[in-house]
Amino acid sequence: MSAIIVIIQIVFITLGMIVLGMVLNHFLGLTKEVLQDMRKKALNFRERMKNAQLIGDYEQLIQTQQESTVFMKSIMKKQMIPLCLRCIIFIGIFMVLGMIYVDYESGLLPFPILIFGSGWLAIYLIFSVYFSLFIWGVKKLTGMGGKTKNSVKEIMGLVSPQQDTGLSSYPTSNIPDMPRRDSWKERIEE
């Protein structure tokens, strides 16, 4: 095959992989309804923590923090499983492409692209970046760009005990005396 035909094939493969990525994001990503539900739960945890701090209920505060930790783990799971699945699919596709275009590891471009050389991988990366930036720009200009990343950051910020929980300003005089544990072994046994 000539170099031009290989480059055109790689351009169409790049477009196909970008479309596949968008389809996977649509079906495996977090929907607006799920994000709204998560945001409501995060606001609920935040309000419960503030109320527990105001009334000085240390046990309720600890329980709410433990529930929010479980909630954060579920959010991370909902984000990581689709990400890992997409990663596995794309690694498989790249393995197939590597076997098909093994003869075109170099020489398709007149100059090398950093560590990727001048073969099919360099061409894929050039067109992938170009098409991705084009799609991002179109989404940004038309207002169709999803706010999933910002919404997840906001939800994590609402539940995160580091932001505005006021633990450092919690009055220590209202904390009931807790039995002191001398070692990690005693903590595990309880």
- Terminal CA distance reads 70 Å
What's the rounded overall pLDDT mean? 75
Shape: elongated
DSSP summary: helix tally: 6
List segments where confidence is low: pLDDT < 50 over at least 5 consecutive residues: 162-181
Note the run of SSEs as H and E: HHHHHH
Q: How much strand?
A: under 5%
Percent range of helical residues: over 70%
Biggest sheet features: none
Could you say how many structural domains there are in total?
1
How many strand elements? 0
Structural class: mainly alpha
Radius of gyration: 25 Å
What can you tell me about this protein's structure?
- This protein has 190 residues and is mainly α.
- The protein has one domain (3-166).
- Helix content is 71%, strand content 0%.
- It contains six helices and no strands.
- Helix 1 packs antiparallel against helix 3 (58-100) and helix 2 (32-55) runs antiparallel to helix 3.
- The protein is elongated, with a radius of gyration of 25 Å.
- The termini are far apart.
- The relative contact order is 0.13.
Reconstruct the topology from this structure.
Blueprint (H helix, E strand, L loop, with lengths): L2 H26 L3 H24 L2 H43 L19 H23 L5 H12 L24 H6 L1
Helix pairs in contact: 1-3, 1-4, 2-3, 2-5
